[in-house]
Amino acid sequence: MRYFIGNMIRGEAAEYYKATCVDLASRFGVEDVSAIVAPHITVKAPFDRHEVEMIDDVISMVTEAPAIPLSISKWNHFGTRTIFLDAVRPPPSLKEYIKSVLSKLRAMGINLNSQELDPHIHLSLARFLKPDQFNNIWKYLGLMPAPQFDIIFDNLTIFQKEKIEDKAWKVLKTFPLTGKRV
Fold it and tell me: Percent of the chain scored above 90 by pLDDT?
């Protein structure tokens, strides 16, 4: 099975994310990211694992952390392949928390990539873009005011694909963070 771990986004920010993904897909012929996966911030990129119980055990050990407030308020991009909503000045405590989760996953034998060791907190809106798609979408978004959302990083969610060829990710399990908010 294939899994990834993220923070599920809810509320007004999630609704805005879905509407923006649908708009970009219909205007520019790109994949509707919101049809493939629920709104989220990735903590651990996709990986293969046969026993989800071990992941459950690790996640349950790290959910005693406090929920962490976070602001999402600008458009950004990774090269010309991905456009996203960016976290503005994410609290250092969030990056440290993500690194602690990754450390526990690494101890289980789950490989990490170099980008995960320095997390860039974001919500992808359009991915796998061709240069002309990127340029058109970037110009379009430049005409719109960037959204401003104050959200709470308050859960870890395991997303699952049963088969590699499956397009959509399903929510397998969500673990609320149970500590006091910082």
Answer: 71
